[in-house]
Amino acid sequence: MKWIYKVTYPNGKIYVGMDLTGTFRYFGSPDAKRLEADYTSEQRRNFTITREILWESEDAEDAVVRRKEVEFIMEFRSNDPTIGYNRWPKLKA
User: Fold this and answer.
1) Could you give the CA distance from residue 32 to residue 55 in angstroms, rounded to a whole number?
2) Which end of the chain is more exposed for a tag (fewer CB within 10 A), N or C?
3) How many helices (H) and strands (E) does the chain have?
4) CA dihedral 34, 51, 93, 35 (to 10 degrees)
5) How far apart are CA 72 and CA 56, in angstroms?
6) Domain ranges (residues) in the chain
């Protein structure tokens, strides 16, 4: 199964990602420096995130999944540092 998912952090910021293998335990690769800067050492000790599957397909080609990921990043504006942790595509001013 191939997925596009949205991860929501305790501060309300989000990360949109894709998984081409349907790995249940995968939560993406958000911008670690931005993520860590948003939480104190104490807050990092215990917090909960949620992952929501936004779109899925059993047979979509990988290129289609990659395009869908960008569509959702743009829709949710998760590449805007005030909203989310996606580094790409770069936010246009």
Assistant:
1) 25
2) C
3) 3, 3
4) 0
5) 12
6) 2-76
